[in-house]
Design brief:
Number of helices: 17
Cofactor: pyridoxal 5'-phosphate
Structural class: alpha/beta
Helix content: 40-55%
Keywords: Lyase, Pyridoxal phosphate
Mean pLDDT: 95
Largest sheet: 7 strands, mixed
Oligomer: single chain
Distance between the termini: 42 Å
Protein name: Diaminopropionate ammonia-lyase
CATH architecture of the largest domain: 3-Layer(aba) Sandwich
Order of helices and strands: EHHEHEHHEHEHEHEHEHEHHEHHHEHH
Shape: globular
Number of strands: 11
Number of domains: 2
Strand order of the largest sheet: 1-10-9-8-11-3-2
Strand content: 5-15%
Pfam family, one: PALP
InterPro entries: DiNH2opropionate_NH3_lyase, TrpB-like_PALP, TrpB-like_PALP_sf
Low-confidence stretches: none
């Protein structure tokens, strides 16, 4: 299913707070923060010429966030960045002077952070980032996971010293429980979704994601004409679309938001013209995108700068995982987790449908940008769906490059 953006705010300027959050100066500040991370390095940008030819477009470039900061997903940029920002703000308040990033590990700052606890709900990736950020600064973390989060993903978060709290129900249930418990205990909620009265911290999380867009714009030979990005609550889609709109202005690309068919909260919000919570049904294989209510901040951005919304089926996502693992010709092999290739699945659906292709003006001159938002964050599940271990896929690329 495909839906052009028909919201009354479509193509209107971003709200001032969102323009400040997602603009170029803010993204440059995020990049400055990253220079203080020991394992920071730009993630790869892959060119897939054989796939582009098959799809009838000029180029397909994929930004591979499976290599981000040792956490395996783009979310490494958001949660930890927000935690660091919040710690510096609290230290500045308690110490009575402005504390810069260079002082993050000073004894007096560490004394402040030792008394702080950050909390969040997660499907896996965001919680890992928040927990890592807390460990980096010496704070405590409490991470709430719903019943659908695999034991392997829970263990990957717990290794950063987080207190893990299981919640019955869905991701949205874990969000509500995290907010309730944090309010009782005086913890700081570092969520990647927003609700009425809680917008600034999710905005900081989204701001963290802009760093990968800055990297991509430097890596791309020319700006993209089309961008397909997957959405859960919408944070990454809004960060990418909002930053590109601000950075490129009239030259900004056509932006398409891709939802899982079984958790299409942004698609249904676009259809309704307002944020809506959808019913929980059968779980989607795209576990990191299994969200049933959009972030209010993300919706506010996307209602203005997204050009279209579409949905893809579970089998589309699994087919992309396999295609990227076993590429044609000299295209590189890429490890994409269950949610990582959903944007590419959207592109493949779009080019196969003449009406959608025409509506988006996808043609032989189109330069398409995709983000592989995660690698194999659950290697056992990856092997089950692809039939190969993630390291076997990676090694096949090394052999091809040798």
């Amino acid at each position: 299913m495909f839906l052009p953006n028909q919201h009354p705010d479509y193509r209107k300027p971003l709200a001032p707070v969102d323009a400040e959050t997602l603009g170029v100066p803010a993204a440059e500040e995020v990049e400055r923060y990253l220079t203080y991370r020991d394992n920071h390095a730009p993630t790869p940008l892959h060119t897939l010429p054989v796939l582009a030819a098959e799809l009838g477009v000029n180029t397909v470039h994929i930004k591979d966030e499976g290599f981000r900061l040792g956490l395996g997903s783009f979310k490494a940029l958001g949660g930890s960045y927000a935690v660091i920002r919040l710690v510096l703000e609290e230290a500045s308040r308690q110490l009575g002077r402005a504390i810069d990033l260079a002082e993050l590990h000073a004894p007096e700052v560490r004394a402040v952070t030792a008394g702080m606890t950050v909390a969040c709900a997660t499907d896996g990736n965001h919680g890992r980032s928040v927990a890592q950020g807390a460990q980096l600064v010496g704070a405590r973390s409490a991470i709430f996971v719903h019943s659908g989060v695999s034991d392997e993903r829970v263990a990957a978060i717990a290794r950063f010293g987080a207190e893990m709290i299981r919640v019955e129900g869905t991701y949205d249930d874990s969000v509500a429980e995290a907010a309730r418990v944090a309010a009782e205990k005086g913890w700081i909620v570092v969520s990647d979704t927003s609700w009425p009265g809680y917008e600034r911290i999710p905005g900081l999380v989204m701001q963290g994601y802009t760093a990968m867009v800055r990297e991509a714009l430097r890596q791309l030979p020319s700006p993209p004409t089309h961008v397909f990005v997957q959405a859960g609550v919408g944070g990454v889609a809004a960060a990418v679309a909002g930053h590109l709109a601000l950075a490129l202005g009239d030259q900004r690309p056509v932006f398409v938001v891709v939802d899982p068919a079984r958790a299409a909260c942004l698609f249904e919000s676009a259809r309704a013209g307002r944020p809506v919570k959808i019913e929980h049904g059968e779980p989607t294989v795209m576990a990191m995108l299994e969200c049933y209510e959009p972030s209010l901040v993300a919706w506010r951005v996307l209602s203005r700068v997204a050009d279209a919304f579409m949905i893809v089926a579970d089998e589309d996502a699994v087919a992309v995982m396999n295609r990227l693992a076993r590429p044609a010709g000299r295209d590189p092999a890429i490890v994409a987790g269950e949610s990582g290739g959903a944007g590419l699945a959207g592109l493949m659906r779009a080019v196969a449908d003449p009406e959608i292709r025409a509506a988006l003006d996808l043609n032989e001159a189109s330069r398409v940008f995709i983000i592989n938002t995660e690698g194999a964050t659950d290697p056992e599940r990856y092997e089950e769906l692809v039939g190969m271990r993630p390291d076997a896929v990676t090694n096949s690329t090394r052999r091809a490059d040798a």
